[in-house]
């Protein structure tokens, strides 16, 4: 009888899982560092007083969207590395 178990972890599935964790970690670090830099800039430059409320909201929204795009791009790069390492 065969020793095949459908739910068993293989070396390939474990490598896939570790790359996914790495990608999520890299994306999280990028977002955390970016948010820290945005917060430091807000405090250092007194942007609350300099910019109006509407302009400030647009600037922060744009910065958060840009951080999200960078995090997704980092995730895609790590996934591409994983895909290339399988070949």
Provide keyphrases for this structure:
single chain; 87 residues; mainly alpha; 0% strand
Total strands: the figure is 0
Q: What is the average per-residue confidence, as pLDDT, rounded to a whole number?
A: 77
What's the alpha carbon Rg, rounded to whole Å? Answer: 20 Å
Which series of helices and strands comes N to C? HHH
Q: What fraction of the residues are assigned to beta strands by DSSP?
A: under 5%
The total count of helices amounts to 3
Helix content: over 70%
Name the shape in a single word.
Answer: rod-shaped
Biggest sheet descriptor: none
Q: How far is the first residue's CA from the last residue's CA? A: 31 Å
Protein structure class? mainly alpha
Low-confidence stretches: none
Commentary on this structure:
With 87 residues, the chain is mostly helical. It has a domain at 38-87. It has helices at 11-45, 47-50, 53-86. The longest helix is centred in the N-terminal third of the chain and has 35 residues, at 11-45. The radius of gyration is 20 Å and the shape is rod-shaped. It starts with 10 loop residues before the first helix and ends with a helix. The model has no long low-confidence stretch (mean pLDDT 77).
Layout of secondary structure:
Blueprint: H1 11-45, H2 47-50, H3 53-86
Helix pairs in contact: 1-3
Tell me briefly what this model is.
The protein is an all-alpha fold.
